[in-house]
Design a protein that fits this description.
alpha/beta, single chain, binds zinc ion, 259 residues, 19% strand
Length: 259
């Protein structure tokens, strides 16, 4: 083969590699990960679920190299006291949270659906109790109920059962390329099988509190005394839940991997 032909082949290969890299960068890196597929489940206890979805569009990473390094070191140092590591596994190393706002308000719409068999207004109150569990969070976020689902950040809906019938809650978050959450949806199930009773009030409140934790950006905790444990027996955020939320909102959102 002549050197000229080899040169042309090499040039074509380089062009193809560059093109494929460019396409990879353009493609939306939509990641849908069910955090509960390998969740630890306490026998007999219904699990709570989380789906983290996003990003919607690829923006310019907003965290520079030194800041990323500092945040990684902080997560490393605080391991044990907080549990953000599992979030980074779900999101390909992107810190996802709601953007900083002057009033720190997260707007929440409870979307009642009387066509779901067994739905009662009491379920709205159970969801409100779940919201209230986070009301005095150390990150200073204010959870405020709004009437219009279109203006809400987090939309709460009720379904008879979830696709994984062992789960009673499911949360999806969409985010921009800079890790800034733009909307979330919580689905709360009334039953774990078609013939079972509607979920008891205490469990409904606990599941709602757990799902609001996901909707604020928290991943699962590996510790069963935390509200964010997959099938947590507790109904309110623990010290570690609060510390993890505080850290999540103390650092900038965005990718932590070096480009
Ligand atoms: Zn969960």
């Amino acid at each position: 083969m002549s050197p000229r032909i080899l040169g042309v082949i090499a040039a074509v290969l380089v062009a193809l590699i560059v093109l494929s890299r460019a396409q990879r960068q353009d493609a939306p890196a939509a990641t849908v990960i069910n955090a509960d597929t390998d969740a630890l489940v306490t026998a007999g206890a219904p699990t709570q679920g989380a789906v983290v979805r996003g990003p919607d569009s690829i923006g310019t990473p907003s965290i520079d190299l030194l800041a990323r390094l500092a945040i990684r070191r902080r997560l490393e140092r605080d391991r044990g006291r907080v549990y953000l590591d599992s979030l980074l596994l779900q999101t390909d190393s992107t810190l996802v949270r709601w953007p900083d706002r002057a009033d720190k308000t997260i707007r929440i719409a409870l979307v009642a659906d009387t066509t779901v068999p067994g739905f009662t207004p009491a379920l709205l109150d159970h969801a409100r109790a779940g919201m209230a569990a986070w009301q005095s969070n150390e990150a200073g976020l204010q959870l405020r109920e709004v009437d219009d689902p279109l203006t809400a950040d987090i939309r709460v809906e009720w379904v008879t059962m979830l696709p994984d019938s062992a789960q009673l809650g499911l949360t999806e978050i969409s985010w921009e390329g800079n890790g800034s959450a733009n909307r979330a949806r919580i689905q709360l199930a009334l039953r774990t099988n078609p013939d079972s009773q509607v979920v008891p009030a205490a469990i409904a409140r606990r599941v709602a509190a757990h799902e609001f934790g996901h909707a604020l950006g928290l991943p699962h905790s590996p510790v069963d005394t935390d509200l964010m444990f997959p099938s947590s027996p507790v109904a309110a955020p623990s010290r570690r839940d609060q510390a993890t939320l505080l850290l999540l909102y103390a650092v900038p959102s965005g990718p932590l991997k070096d480009p």
